[in-house]
Design goal:
Elements lengths: L11 H12 L5 H18 L9 H9 L8 H20 L26 H11 L5 H14 L3 H5 L6 E2 L4 E8 L2 E8 L2 H14 L12 H15 L7 H14 L4 H8 L4 H8 L4 H12 L1
Antiparallel strand pairs: 1-2, 2-3
Helix pairs in contact: 1-2, 2-4, 5-9, 6-8, 6-10, 10-11, 11-12
Length: 291
């Protein structure tokens, strides 16, 4: 067996490997894939360099070597975001003394509201879900995401014991600042019926999760449904969450209530993400309020 490397011999690639090992079992497969993509330039260009010798200029030069014409501003932002997280972790773990990415500035991104799933695309997904190999499960998942605005992890980890079909509410456990947090979400009678139908088919089993799918499994399910339905717009789990917030705000629900229903840590988070409207949206909200 090869000897364990001392800290002075650790390369950038070694640190990336250690970081991934530290995250497995604590973050979703989707998150690991996110890191795989955004840490790839570091590993490819600087992987053999000893991490203790890495300088801020090395990181800056790597960033400026990325062709901005082939990436969106959000992708460029995420490269820096991932690199800063990696080296902060390495510093916190004592693998390096000085964080070479500490002063690396995040590039600006356009200020705009997140895109939610379109109504027409949602209709197509429901039609395809009813014809899938597990129509009751897939239909129930779509209903739950649409009605609750729950995060992917919250939907995947939803337990049967935390589901109240009579009062149409559930307790979900989702990530938040400081760790995972529980919150109550609400749903319609239609969703309650869909969940009931799925649970009747699901039957009793040792696994207490309602949908019996991990976060990555739900993500892949939505991906397959979107392909079959010919969806061209957003279809990922967060697109359901975005649409949920925008729908509430468009109906005149206060930003404070929307923040609470979204499970945000602060109303400022809701404002930053969803507090921007086009003139057409503002006109529609004004007309509805002034009727």
């Amino acid at each position: 067996m090869p000897a364990t490397k001392t800290l002075k011999d650790l390369t950038v690639a070694d640190v990336i490997t250690r970081y991934f090992n530290s995250q497995k079992g604590f973050v979703s497969e989707g998150t690991l894939e996110w890191y795989t993509y955004y840490l790839a330039p570091l590993k490819e260009q600087l992987g053999d360099k000893k991490v203790r010798l890495l300088k801020a200029d090395d990181i800056r030069s790597l960033y400026h070597s990325i062709d901005p014409s082939t990436h969106t501003p959000y992708t460029l932002f995420n490269f820096v975001r991932a690199w800063k997280r990696l080296f902060k972790w390495a510093t916190d773990e004592g693998l390096i003394k000085n964080n070479p990415a500490n002063k690396l500035r995040r590039p600006p991104v356009p200020k705009k509201s997140p895109s939610g799933i379109l109504d027409d695309d949602l209709t197509k997904l429901f039609e395809v879900a009813r014809k899938s190999t597990k129509p009751k499960r897939d239909y129930a998942i779509l209903c739950f995401l649409v009605d609750t605005g729950a995060r992917l992890g919250g939907a995947a980890s939803l337990l049967v014991d935390n589901l109240d079909l009579e009062r149409r509410r559930a307790i979900v456990t989702e990530k938040g600042r400081g760790g995972k947090k529980e919150r109550v979400v609400f749903f319609s009678q239609n969703t309650a019926e869909a969940l009931k139908d799925w649970l009747n088919e699901r039957g009793l089993c040792e696994d207490k999760r309602v949908f019996l799918l991990k976060p990555y499994g739900i993500y892949q399910l939505l991906r397959r449904l979107s392909i079959r339905a010919g969806v061209k717009g957003k279809w990922n789990p967060h697109a359901f969450r975005h649409a949920f917030a925008r729908r509430l705000l468009a109906k005149g629900v206060s930003i404070g209530i929307v923040s609470h229903l979204m499970g945000h840590s602060s109303v400022n988070v809701t404002i930053d993400f969803y507090g921007r409207f086009s003139n057409d949206e503002l006109q529609a909200i004004y007309d509805k309020v002034m009727e």
